[in-house]
Queue: 3 jobs
Job 1
Amino acid sequence: MIRDEETLNILLDSISRFVREVLVPNEQLVAETDEIPPAIVAQMRELGLFGLSIPEQYGGLQLTMEEEVRVAFEIAHTSPAFRSLIGTNNGIGSQGIVIDGTAEQKEYYLPKLAAGDIIGAFALTEPGSGSDAASLRTSAVRDGDFYILNGTKRYITNAPEASIFTVMARTDPVKRGAGAISAFIVEKDTPGLSLGKIDKKMGQRGAHTCDVVFENCRVPAANVIGGKEGVGFKTAMKVLDKGRLHIAAVCVGAAERMLDDALRYAMERQQFGQPIAEFQLIQAMLADSKAEIYAARSMVLDAARMRDNGNDVSTEASCCKLFASEMCGRVADRSVQIHGGAGYIAEYAAERFYRDVRLFRIYEGTSQIQQIVIARNMIKAAQK
Ligand code: COS
C-alpha cells in the first residue's frame, strides 16, 4: 500500500541520491576499515533511515510494507553493510516491541530506536540452536520483580553497537519446545551481560556480529515483551515473517546493482574486436539475471501488499526470501563471470558483492528453512 506516491517518491529520490553520492563512493573505505564513518551514520540518522518502520507516534516514518520494500530496493544498491546498520532498528531489533510490546515498552524504547539514538539487536541464535530455534537453552528464572538470565547468543548482528537486545529465553525449565520461550528487552549495561569478540566474517565488512553472554543477568520483569511469558517464540516468528520480506527486497536491490555493474563492464570491455556485451553467451547471462530480478521484485511487491492488507504472509514471505536470495546468489555468480579475471580481483565491486550477498541465503532463516515453512504451511492449509 502506497499512502502518498508523491511523498514516497521524494523519500526514494533522496535515498537514491544519498546511495549514489555518499554510500557508493565510500564502499571501499568501509570494506578496508571494517567501519562505517560516523559522519555517514549521522547522515543516515538525519534521513530518518533508522525509523522507517516505526510508528509515527514514536517518531518513525511508519512506512507500509510496500513502501518499506521500495526503500530497501534503493538502499541495497550499495554495500549491504550500510543496510545492516539500519536494518535491525527497522526490523528484527525493533519489531518485537512494535508488534507485541506493552504501551510502556513502546513509549520508552521506540522513539530512541526511531531516531537512531540507540541500536537494537535480536538475540535468538545460540551455539547449539540455529535453524531449530525452539531448542534454545538460554534460561530466564523468575526472582521477585526480576528474571535471572543465563546463556549465550551467537552471531548477533549489530551486537557490538547495540544498546538493547530482544532476547529469547526459556522461562519454563520443564516444558520443551516453543511454548516455554519468552522474549525480553535487555539493556546492554545490565550487570551480567557481556560481549564476545567481533566475528571475522566472509564478507559484509562494516557490519558486525558477536556473541552476547548472559551470566546471572538480572532483567526487570517489566521487560518481558508484552508482559506475557511463553509467547516469545511466536513474537520471534512474527518478527521474522516481516524480516524475511525485507531481506528479499534487499536481495532484489543488491542483484540490480550487480547487474548494472556487469552490464556496464560488458559494454566497455572489448574482446575479439567488440564489446563482450555483443556476444550472445554474455547476453544470456544478462537476460537471465534481468528476468529473475523482475520475478523477485514482483513477488516482493505482491507479498508486501498482501501484508499491508492484513493477510498472514508467512508462506509468501518465505517464498520471497527463498527465491530472491537464491536469485541474488546466481546474479552474483554471473556478475563475477561476466567480469572474467577482473571479477576475482578485489578492486572491482563484483568480488566484494559476491562475498557479501552469500549471507542472504543463510540469515533470517536458511533457504532450507524457508522450504520447510512453505511446505508445512501448504500441508496445514490442505488439512483444513
Ligand atoms: N507467526 C506466528 N506464530 C508462528 C509462526 C509465525 N510465522 N510460525 C510458527 N508459529 C507458532 C506456531 O503456530 C506454534 O504455535 P502453537 O504451538 O501454539 O501451534 C509455535 O510457533 C511453534 O511453531 P512450530 O511448531 O512450527 O515450531 P518448530 O520448532 O517446528 O520450528 C521453524 C519452526 C523451523 C520454522 C523455526 O524454528 C524457524 O524459523 N527456524 C529458523 C530460525 C531463523 O530464522 N533463525 C535466523 C536467526 S534470526 S536472524
Note: The radius of gyration is 21 Å.
Job 2
Amino acid sequence: MKKILVANRGEIALRIMRSVKEMGIQTVAIYSEADRHSPHVIYADEAVCMGPPPSKASYLLGDKIIKTCLKLGVDGIHPGFGFLSENAEFTRKVTEAGIIFIGPSPESMEVMGSKLAAKAAVAKYDTPMVPGTAKAIDDIGEAIEVAKGIGFPILIKASAGGGGKGMRIVEKAEDFEEQMQLAVNEAVSAFGDGAVFIEKYIASPRHIEIQILADQHGNILHLLERECSIQRRHQKVIEEAPAVIMTEKLRESMGQAAINVARSCNYHGAGTVEFLMDENQKYYFLEMNTRLQVEHPITEMITGIDIVKEQIKVARGEKLSFTQADIKPNGHSIELRIYAEDPQNNFLPDIGNLQTYRPPIGNGIRVDDGFREGMDIPIYYDPMIAKLAVHADTREAALQKMKQAIRDYKIVGVKNTLDFGHWVMNHPAFIAGDIDTHFIKKYFTPECLDKELEEEEAFVAATLAVQFLEKNKVKFDNATSSSSDSVSSTWHKNRVRR
Ligand code: ADP
C-alpha cells in the first residue's frame, strides 16, 4: 500500500495517520465542512471535503469516499471506529473497487454485527454465554416463560444494538410485554431491525474484554485484556490494562475463548471480544467488536505493539511476526476518555469553544486528541475531546501519574470529564480494584466533584506553599508580601483550569 485514506475524523483519524506515516505510506483525510480546520485535515498529505457537517452528508457517504480513493490513487481505506467501520456493504464495495479495506471481511462483520448470529456462531466452541434466548423473540408468552426460568431481573436486548442503546431491564413478569414493545420500537428506530432477545441480567458484573489480532493465514493471537467497568449509560469512560482481578489461569482461559470467537467467524485483523464477569469470576461472552477499539492505547502501552500498524500489515497479507508467548504485560496502563460532557448533569453532552486547551506531556503520558485551543466542539459528532492514557510500572504508580496528568490538563470553555476522572482515581473502591459496571451509579453524585475540587485546591495550595517555602528558605525571615501575592495568583490560575 502506498496511499491510505482514513475514513474518519478527529483524534482517531490523527492517531491512525501517525502510524501510516511512520510506515512510509501517504495519507488522505476526509472532512466535513465543520472540520475544515481540524488537525487531522492539516496533518494529512491530502484532504478532501465530503460535504456539510451532518455525518450522513459527509463521513457516511461511502460511494463518494470510494470515488475519492479511485481519483487519488488510494489503495487502502482505514475506517477507524464508528461511521463506516462496521458496515459490511461498504466493505464489499471497497473490495469490489479494488481497494484494500483495513479490517475484517464483510462476512465476519455480518456475523458479529448481530448479537444473535454471533451467539449462534460461537456456540459450537462451547463459549460460556449469558443464559437467555438464542433467537429473536416472536412469541411473548413463550418469552415470559423463558424469563421466569432464568429469573428476574432480565435484560431485553436488541440484536443489532450498539453504543449501549437498545437494552431494557425488566424487573417482573407483569412488565415484560410493555418493556418488550418499547425495546422493539427503540430497536427499529435506532438500528432498523426490531429483533430482540432475552439475557439474564448479571447483577454486578465487570466488563472485561480481550484484544484479538489475526492474520489471513489462520494465526490468531490475543493481546491480553482490558477492564472497562467504569461506565455511564452502558458505555465506557475509564479503562485499564491489565485487569486487577486477572490471574494467569483466567487469562489463558479467556484468551482462548476469545481466540475461538474470532475463529468462529474466520476473523482477520484487530478485533475485541467482550465478556461480562460475575462476582465468582465466571465469565460470559457478550459480543465481538470488529474494529479498532477506542481504548486500544492501553493495550499498546502494556504490550509495546502498535495495533494500527499490525492492522495494516495483516491487510496487506503479512503473517503476524510474533507468537502468543511473546505477549507479556509490561506495567500498568489506565485511560480516561475526556468527553465534552457534564458529569454533574447526568453526563449530558456539552458544546462550546475550547478557550483554553493544554494537554499534559511527560514520560508515560499519551494524549490522543483531535482539537486545538480555540476550536469549537461541534454538535454533530461523538462528544469525545481526547483520550488520556498513562503507563507506569505498577497500578499504584499509574494512578498517581493519571492524577497528576489530569491536574496538568487545562481545559476551559467546555464541561468535561477531567474532574470526574480525578475523583475516580481517588475513590477507595477504585483504588482497591473493587469495581463493577455500576460503580458510577453506586458512588457518584454531583456533589462528589465539589468536594473533589475543594480537596484539589487544598492540595494545590499545600504544594505551592511547600515550593514557596523551599524557594525562600534562605531569605525566609525577609519573605516579602509580593512573593506571597505571586503564590496566591498561581493558585488562582490553577483553580480556574476547568
Ligand atoms: P453494546 O453493543 O450496546 O455496547 P453490550 O452487549 O456490549 O452492548 O453491553 C454494553 C454494556 O451493557 C456492558 O458492558 C454491561 O455494562 C451492560 N450489559 C450488557 N449485557 C448485560 C447483562 N446481561 N447483564 C448485565 N449488564 C449487561
Note: Residues 480-498 have pLDDT under 50 and may be disordered.
Job 3
Amino acid sequence: MAERRKRVFSGIQPSGVSHIGNYLGAIRNWVAQQESYDNIFCIVNLHALTLPTEPASLHANTITMANTLLAAGIDPQASILFVQGDVREHSELCWLLNSVATFGELRRMTQFKDKSGGAEESVSAALFDYPVLQVADIILYDADLVPVGEDQRQHIELARDVAQRFNRRYGDTFVVPAPDIKANGARIMSLEDPTKKMSKSAGSTGSYIALTDTDSEITKKVKRAVTDSGSEVKATPDKPALTNLLGIYSLLSNTVSRSRVRYAGKGYGALKTDLATIVVDAIRPIREKLLEYEANPDYAASVLAEGAERARSLATPKMEIVRERMGLTGHAIR
Ligand code: AQP
C-alpha cells in the first residue's frame, strides 16, 4: 500500500509586516518543501488577539499576510492556505485540550514570560493559553512535521506532550507531531541588538528588515546594523553581530565558507555593502509580487475561501471523533 505523504502544518501571525527572520526561519522552508509534503499553512488571526489589536488592522494584516505568503512562493495548488478563525474547530479543540494541558506547563513557557514583559496581571488570559491553541492548530490536522523557527521549539514540545497524554487518556486519536527546525536560519537576530531575536514587536523598525522594505530602506538598515569590536570578519561566539550578518549572508547567497578569505583586510564596510546587495536582490522580487497581489484583492480572497473549505473538510470529521472519545456526544436523540 502506498505510504501517505507526511503532513506539514505551520502558522504565522497576521501581526503587521513579515521580516527576514520569519522568511529565513519559516516561510522560505515552507516554500522549498512544498512539493515533498502535504502542506497546511495557516494565518493565525486568533493568535493575534492575544495582544491588543484593532479590528480594522487585524483584518487588513490578515489580507497582507495572505498576499505576502503568495508572493513568497506558497502555491495554493500544492498547499492549503487559510485563516485560522475561518475554521471554528481550532477554538473548540483548544477548549477541549485546556482540560489536558496543565497550568504548570503553560507557566513554564518562556514566550509567555517574554511577551507579558512582567505585566502578568494585566495581559490577556489568551496570551497565557496561546500555546494550547497552537497545539490544537497542529494536532487537529494530524500533522507529522511543524517547520518553525527556534523560538517555537518549546511550544512544539508541548504539542507532543499534550497529544501523547490525550492518546493515553482517550485512546489513540492524534498523530504526535515533530518540530522541523533547520540548523541554519532558525534564529535570526535583531540588527540593533544581536542578543535578541529579530522581531517586529520588539525594538525599532531598524532592528528588522521587512519584506516590504524598499531597496534604499534595506541598504540603510544593513549599513546601520551594529557590529562587534575589532574589524575581522568572522562568525565566532565573541562576535554575535557578525555571526548574525554572516548567517543572513550565507542563507541568501548559499556561500559563506570563503567569506573570511573574501573580506580579509577589508573590514566590516565591504561585508555590509555586499550583504545589502544580496538582501535587496532577495527581497525585491517578493516585494514586487506582493504589490501585484495587492492590486488584485479578489485573488487572495478566493484562495482563502477555498483553503478554509479544504481545511474544514479535514477538521470537521476529526472533531467528531474527538467529541465522541471525550464523552461529549450521544445524549440527544435527533
Ligand atoms: N528572528 C527569527 N528567526 C527565525 N525565525 C523566526 N520566526 C519568527 N522570528 C524569527 C519564525 O517565524 C514564524 C512565524 O512567527 P510568528 O507569526 O509567530 O511571528 P513571531 O514569532 O511572533 O514573530 P515576531 O516578529 O517575533 O513577532 P512578534 O514580535 O509580534 O512576536 C515562526 O515559525 C517563527 O518561529
Note: Strands lie at 7-12, 38-43, 79-83, 145-147, 178-180.
